[in-house]
Amino acid sequence: MRSHYGGEGIPTRIAVRYVVFAILSTLANFAVQAAVVKIYPSQSLVPSMLAGTAAGFGLKYFLDKRWIFFDRYESHGDELLKIVLYGLFSVVTTIIFWGFEIVFWTVWRTDLAKYTGGAIGLAIGYISKFALDRKFVFKLEGVTD
């Protein structure tokens, strides 16, 4: 698995791009959640969270792979391994996201609180995820941090 950069610091343009992509992924997540709430208003919390998370995952993987880590397709097996690792790390960071979203919704029971908690959880999760993805998913062969 090769990447554009390895052990050196993160270039500013990459950090800015990562933040922009995190925001885009968050907006996609929230837009899908809002759509699910309109479709299933009485049972909206869990279905909206699952659908929003799936939308955010797909968009973020594509953007990270192409524009953050400059990762190229090498083989089916290599790509599958990347997706599995990316997915596993996404589960960890999604627990952070969902935890904040659920706690905020449970305490205040408003959409604003739910999305505020979600935004905080996503921000913490994305920071953690970048470090994990850089080290384990889209790593440069032979380079360690």
Automatic annotation (TrEMBL):
Protein name per the record: GtrA family protein
Originating organism: Rhizobium leguminosarum
Membrane topology: Multi-pass membrane protein
Membrane-crossing segments per the record: 18-39, 45-63, 83-106, 112-132
Alphabetical keyword list: Membrane, Transmembrane, Transmembrane helix
Assigned GO CC terms: membrane
Subcellular location: Membrane
Domain GtrA/DPMS transmembrane: 17-138
Keyword Transmembrane helix in record: yes
Pfam families the record matches: GtrA_DPMS_TM (PF04138)
InterPro entries associated with the record: GtrA_DPMS_TM (IPR007267)
Source superkingdom: Bacteria
Biological process annotations from GO: polysaccharide biosynthetic process
